[in-house]
Amino acid sequence: MTDVEAPVRSKTITWQDPLETARLGAAMSGLEYMRAIAEGRLPGAPIAAHFGMRWESVEPGEVVAVIEPDESLYNPIGMVHGGVAATMLDSVVGCAVHTTLPAGVGYASVELKVSYLRAIHAGRGEIRATGRVVKEGSRIAFAEGEVRDAEGKLLATASGTCVITR
């Protein structure tokens, strides 16, 4: 029992087996795999379902993901939790790197530095995260990302490093 009487809200999240999707994706280049997800030919990652994230653009070395934040993503002080921006940035940084990889080659984030510039609130439209590869390498790749609101205001930035796995 709480001291606050507030309406209860709920959100239903559904997803498909991510291991089966990953198995199918292992036979595709990273660009083909990411485009298949963006186009709905393969299901997206379960974490994307939690945030309602969709892929707006997938090009070699650059991707764009979009969500429309709702209050289910709020922290205790009434704004979207910083982990949402961090998750979006980790996703676009990693997936931008993924678009440059051949079939059977993967990646993992080894470092992500996020800078938060403005608070994110629900009800103000979509936010867009863009990830771009800065430097490709045979063992390590570097990428950067940014999150912008519907008006184009910069909300957060990131730089990340991914290890390439063969």
UniProtKB/TrEMBL annotation:
User: Which UniProt key words apply to this protein?
Assistant: Hydrolase
Identify the stretch annotated as signal peptide in this record: none
- Of which family is this protein a member? Belongs to the thioesterase PaaI family.
Q: Where do the Thioesterase domain residues begin and end?
A: 78-155
Query: What is this protein called in UniProt?
Result: Aromatic compound degradation protein PaaI
Q: Where are the transmembrane segments?
A: none
**Pfam families, per the entry:** 4HBT
Q: Give GO MF terms, alphabetically.
A: fatty acyl-CoA hydrolase activity
Recorded superkingdom: Bacteria
Output the CDD domains linked to this UniProt entry. PaaI_thioesterase (cd03443)
